[in-house]
Specification:
TPR repeats lie at residues 98-131. The protein is mainly α and 186 residues long. The protein has 9 helices and no strands. Helix 4 packs antiparallel against helix 5 and helix 6 (114-127) packs antiparallel against helix 7 (132-144). The longest helix has 20 residues, at 58-77.
Amino acid sequence: MTHLAIRLTTLAMFSVAVAATPSLTPAYAAGGDTPSAPPASDTKGTKDKKKKTETRNPNSENTAFLANYRAAYATVYDKQDYTAAIAQLKALGQDDRADVANLIGYSYRKLGDYKVSQIWYERALKADPAHVRTWQYYGLWQVEQGNRDQAQYHLNKIAMLSGKDSAEYKSLAAALDKAPGSGPTY
């Protein structure tokens, strides 16, 4: 009887462990004109901070943020006015969001300021290590800098996060397929 109880307990513990284990299906994170949620903020604070938070309407703030983010996004991709886009993105006051930091990095890269661009890509990955669009753009940065091994690392990371059929993977793979020094890869 004791042996049966041990087996049942072991089976129950195993079942709970399997149920509690996260899915092995990869989570896909890219970037787009709708940014991901901001990083969790520190919940500690004074009563005054709590009162200010309670009186603000988070929906109107979020709506305003999204509208301004989309405007900056359009400035980057439609107008290709990278200097104006950087100003718009920084004015959002949300530099700690991966989508925002990534677009700032992309804009600096397009302006040819690779050192500052790198800082922003790394900031985006710190905010969200699974941000596929940042891995793609930073990989393109690596190709443009001649760091093909690092770009390959970024490509492998994208494959792991979003698969080889993703647009981000295909874009970076195409850039790596070009001969070194054969022109822009953006």
